[in-house]
Design brief:
This protein is α+β, with helices and mostly antiparallel strands and 340 residues long. It has three domains: 92 residues, no CATH class; 131 residues, Rossmann fold, CATH 3.40.50; 80 residues. The longest helix is centred in the N-terminal third of the chain and has 20 residues.
Length: 340
């Protein structure tokens, strides 16, 4: 039965195009030198900072006082952890509790970039001192592509790359990116139907790499910036700033009026799940109920409700299928039970 219920959640996730963060967003690995408790606590703080940035979509989340305070008590938000070791050393793998992280962001009034996130189309010219090239979708083994993908994964920033087929080659030349001529790039991007386009060039100098970047949103220039250092630092400087800008553009405050997380308890099978989902959708102020996470005996929904928590509470009074559990739930979470 649990398999059937999980399958239904996945089907509904696609059907409703839900704004649910993938489970992997709440997982991270950080290097450690030992398994000592003190070092583990520090590593958990570092791990939580990475997860907060991924979930919020922006490094600005770490500017919030409540988020910074949570880093020193990261263990309270941990769902599971284990140590890993290989030739590169020892690492701590951590999975944080989804509801706890979302609750922290909500209480801190963090503006977050919802999921699913649209992929950003990347046009990048690379000069490594030996050759110049335009990075394409087929260049999976190129060092620059691998570094970009790794950093994008750390930021939960989906990327796509041009095919660089005959059509692209006929429209965009290396000199266009190197010279900052963006009209051909934007015209070539239309076939990919990408809402955001990141164009850039990175080159290897005598002592360090340097990069120049430009972000476009809806065909309009948003910002331009530079980065430098190692190849990793230069590419990170491009992606990190782009991610922050996109999060600012798409961000929503998950604690704002109308957006709530509703945990429905006593959900023990497929029939219970359907009943809870249908009951929520019939509540007057609710315009959208999206399944988020599945527990052993509960389901968490992300709900858009007019009037926020108060409006939902008023509408649920006397509901035959759902009853409020007043003593449980954080400020950002409504806890209900399925009435039998």
């Amino acid at each position: 039965m649990r398999i059937l219920l999980t399958s239904l959640l996945l089907i509904l996730a696609v059907a409703h195009a839900e704004a649910r963060a993938p489970a992997a967003v709440y997982e991270v690995e950080v290097p450690v030198r030992s398994q000592a408790a003190g070092e583990r606590d520090q590593a958990l703080g570092a791990a939580l900072s990475k997860v907060l940035v991924k979930v919020a979509g922006t490094r600005a989340v770490l500017d919030h006082e409540q988020a910074r305070a949570a880093l020193g008590q990261a263990g309270r938000l941990v769902q599971q952890y284990r140590y890993l070791a290989d030739d590169e050393g020892q690492r701590l793998w951590v999975r944080f509790d989804t509801a706890a992280v979302e609750g922290l962001l909500s209480r801190a009034q963090v503006v977050s970039w919802p999921f699913p996130r649209n992929a950003t189309l990347v046009w990048l010219a690379v000069d490594d001192g030996r050759e110049r090239m335009l990075l394409g979708a087929a260049d999976l083994d190129h060092e620059t592509r691998q570094v970009l993908e790794a950093r994008a994964q750390e930021r939960a920033l989906p990327l796509m790359f041009p095919l660089m087929d005959l059509t692209d080659q006929g429209r965009v030349r290396l000199g266009d990116l190197w010279g900052g001529f963006h009209e051909p790039v934007l015209e070539a991007s239309e076939r990919y139907d990408a809402a955001s386009v990141l164009s850039g060039r990175v080159s290897r100098g005598a002592r360090e790499w340097s990069g120049r970047w430009q972000l476009f949103q809806g065909g309009e220039a948003v910002a331009g910036w530079e980065s430098s250092g190692s190849l990793q630092d230069t590419l990170a400087g491009g992606l990190d700033h782009a991610g922050d800008l996109l999060a600012r553009h798409y961000g929503e405050n998950i604690g704002q009026e109308g957006v709530l997380y509703v945990r429905v308890r006593d959900v023990r099978g497929l029939q219970d799940y359907r009943r809870a989902m249908e009951a929520l959708e019939r509540v007057g102020p609710v315009s959208l109920a999206q399944p988020q996470t599945l527990g052993a005996d509960h389901v968490v929904f992300r709900v858009d409700a007019r009037g926020g928590r108060a409006g939902l509470g008023r509408a649920l009074r006397g509901n035959a299928a759902l009853a409020a559990v007043e003593s449980e739930g954080a400020d950002d979470e409504v806890v209900l039970r399925l009435v039998r």
